[in-house]
Design brief:
Layout: E1 14-24, E2 29-30, H1 44-47, H2 50-61, E3 69-79, H3 83-94, E4 107-111
Antiparallel strand pairs: 1-2, 1-3, 3-4
Length: 113
């Protein structure tokens, strides 16, 4: 591993979050479950019922829910370097052509199989 002062060093400016997200099989949409609330409210972290939490969350969001769901695995990569810092690094010779691009979007979602 090289120090950041070394011109040959490379930077990987991402934070990676991996998880599972329920989705509606029929409507082909991600589900926004109700996650918090007192016991008996249907909130997932209180009652541990995905079906009920999904139905209540989607109703609150004003979105259709078929009642049939599965879970999709995902990765969320969030850029941990600001656009200003990327431009500074690009001007210092560590930008385009290496691992940092000043035009990089802040977030992107990639489905994991």
């Amino acid at each position: 591993m090289r120090p950041s002062s070394d011109a040959a060093s490379k930077i990987w400016p991402f934070k990676l979050h991996e998880g599972n997200q329920p989705y509606d099989v029929v409507n082909k949409t991600l589900i926004q479950p109700k996650t918090y609330g007192p016991k008996g409210s249907g909130a997932y972290w209180s009652d541990y019922d995905w079906e009920k939490a999904s139905r209540l969350g989607m109703k609150y969001a004003g979105l259709p829910f078929s009642g049939k769901s599965k879970v999709a695995r995902y990765e969320l990569r969030k850029n941990s370097v600001t656009i200003r810092k990327m431009k500074e690094l690009a001007n210092a010779g560590k930008g385009p052509g290496t691992f940092i691009d000043a035009n990089l979007k802040d977030r992107f979602l990639r489905k994991v199989r």
